[in-house]
Amino acid sequence: MRAVTPQTLNWLRAVVRRELEVSTLSPTTSRHSHPRLRPCAAFSAQASHARAFNTTSMRLQNSPSPSSSSSTSAAAPTVQHHTYYTLFPKTLPHGPPPTGPFAVDLRALRNEFIQLQSAAHPDRQPSGGDKRRAEGLSARINEAYRTLQNPLLRAQHLLQLRGIDLAEDERLKVEDPELLMEVLEAREAIEEAENEEEVVAMKEGNEARINESVAILDRAFKDDDIETAKSEAVKLRYWVNIKDSLDAWEPGKPVVLQH
């Protein structure tokens, strides 16, 4: 790796700041001020297996908690007060990290997504308020599925639940010269690639970077190490954008890494 002069480092930071003005990956979730996640009782395994989806009221129903076993069912708070994990109780019964894993069973998530969308589809509701609520819930299920199936969006969602906006923090804290230089060299290599074989080799190397970052994020969220999770999510964001550039590669085509 080449030496990084102060002038080059300043230039790289300026480029990064400009590119970060356009964020194409940040999920549109609400931010919370609490520093740690507070797992809800709805995340318990007992509640998740007995939860039923009520398409008339558009609310998620919980099974009785241990403290209220005499009740047949108890309505959970509206979906907006929970995380995306709440919408997928079968796939993610323990909720978000650190109580649940960062890794997600994508096949199970897909199957539950199809079931939820079938139950919540607006066409199953009469016109009026129920139909509008169904449309809103269907859109939120789509957004939750899109976020949870993608490791980067999932990490950003978890960080936002801690009050951390990754894009804003990046503008101030991209200080690792080796990371910046590695990104710059990857960009140059993509632009200089002459054939598909070179691109395939770069894809394999970048996929290894992505897998390493995902593994680090898994450990960080499990240990509730938010600083490590934040810094690794920044790296993953770069590797994902490099992946997008490699997928869109054409001979002589300029490379623009959007963040």
Automatic annotation (TrEMBL):
NCBIfam families: hscB. One of its GO terms (molecular function) is ATPase activator activity. Residues 175-247 form the Co-chaperone HscB C-terminal oligomerisation domain. GO terms for cellular component: mitochondrion. Keywords: Chaperone. InterPro entries: HscB, HscB_C_sf, HscB_oligo_C, J_dom_sf. Belongs to the HscB family. The keyword Coiled coil does not apply. The keyword DNA damage does not apply. It comes from Diplodia corticola. This is Fe-s protein assembly co-chaperone. GO terms for biological process: [2Fe-2S] cluster assembly; protein complex oligomerization.
